[in-house]
Amino acid sequence: MENDRVNSRGVGKLLRHRRLVGGPVHSLYAVAGGSLLLMFIGIHNAWDIAVWNSVRKPQDAS
Questions:
Q1: DSSP state of 56
Q2: CA distance readout (Å), 17 to 42, 53, 58
Q3: Which of 9, 22, 29, 37 would you label with 46, given CA atoms 20 to 30 Å apart?
């Protein structure tokens, strides 16, 4: 029962946010902006890992 209340609160917050954004067109822009943000974060993290792997020194096997 506790999980149902938590989930219903999350849905309520999402619906209130949709009303604040201003309609379906603005909601699509919000989804597109969020997707671009996540994509850039992913590219940044991948770039950091590639640089770290190319710069680090190999450890001794002993």
A1: S
A2: 25, 41, 49
A3: 29
